[in-house]
Design a protein that fits this description.
Layout lengths: L3 E5 L9 H10 L6 E5 L5 H8 L4 E4 L16 H7 L3 E4 L2 H6 L4 H13 L3 E6 L3 H5 L3 H12 L9 E5 L13 H19 L1 H4 L3 E4 L7 H5 L6 E4 L6 H9 L4
Parallel strand pairs: 1-2, 1-8, 2-3, 3-4, 4-5, 5-6, 6-7, 7-8
Helix pairs in contact: 1-2, 1-11, 5-7, 7-8
The structure holds 2-phosphoglycolic acid (PGA).
2-phosphoglycolic acid (PGA) binds next to strand 8.
């Protein structure tokens, strides 16, 4: 499976930011991985016009229903229609600030597939959970409950994002990342069988141009989900370039 480097712009970006996508498009010459940017939903349609398929675009969340009286929400079908081919689901900021449970995330994953989007399902432990030695157990529970049993490598990607590493400049040690990714792989295979073998497992949390090569070179790390360092094309390109062919 080709690696994936995905940028999550979170609540950042105006039409002026489309220049960063133009710069990314101009500089992307035969990358060794697939590339995805998830701008705010307000920019997806304009971004699709600029990017013209040079790399993929995605949403940062979707509702489980295809349409209806859900003020402020967007359906997976709407994202697809705007030009998205992926959607990030169950990001820790959604779980924390919007009370999203594993069951919500699983329903959203099914919605993504219904609309033809690939789901990037996020899991990860808090600092207290890690300090208590509970990280493997917590992540296994999140996988069991947020990844529906019909998940395959064709319709889903897992993103392991330790909550305490997001936006903090702190990352787990390489040994810790490798151990968690190997644990996640074992959980996926025991639950999904062959479908769990090829599923990409991204690492996310303070990935930057300085640490990308080491992290992306670890066993079972199939790419990165990048927040802050994806906002500037120059930084994001360095992370993409860190993927070994
Ligand atoms: P960060 O965010 O790279 O800014 O730590 C990662 C994420 O939240 O996906």
């Amino acid at each position: 499976m080709r690696a994936l480097v995905a940028g999550n712009w979170k609540m950042n970006g105006t039409p002026a930011s489309l220049g960063e996508l133009e710069a990314l498009k101009q500089a992307l010459a035969a990358p060794a991985c697939d590339v995805l940017v998830c701008p705010p939903a307000t920019l997806i349609a304009q971004a699709a016009w600029h990017v013209k398929g040079a790399f993929a675009l995605g949403g940062q969340d979707c509702h489980a229903e295809p349409k209806g009286a859900f003020t402020g929400d967007l359906s997976a079908e709407m994202l697809r229609d705007a030009g998205a081919s992926f959607v990030i689901l169950g990001h820790s900021e959604r779980r924390q600030y919007h009370g999203e449970s594993n069951a919500h995330v699983a329903a959203k994953a099914r919605a993504a597939w219904r609309a033809g989007l690939k789901a990037i399902i996020c899991i990860g432990e808090s600092e207290a959970q890690r300090n208590a030695g509970e990280a493997p157990h917590i992540c296994q529970g999140q996988l069991n409950e947020s990844v529906p049993p019909e998940a395959t490598s064709a319709n889903s990607v897992i993103a392991y994002e330790p909550v305490w590493a997001i936006g903090t400049g702190r990352t787990p040690t390489s040994d810790d990342i490798a151990a968690m990714h190997s644990h996640i792989r074992a959980c996926l295979v025991s639950r999904l069988g062959a479908a769990g073998e090829g599923m990409l497992i991204l690492y996310g949390g303070s990935v930057n141009p300085g640490n990308a090569a080491e992290i992306l070179g670890l066993p079972e790390v199939g790419g990165a989900l990048v927040g802050g360092a994806s906002l500037k094309a120059a930084d994001f390109l360095k992370i993409i370039a860190a993927v070994k062919a």
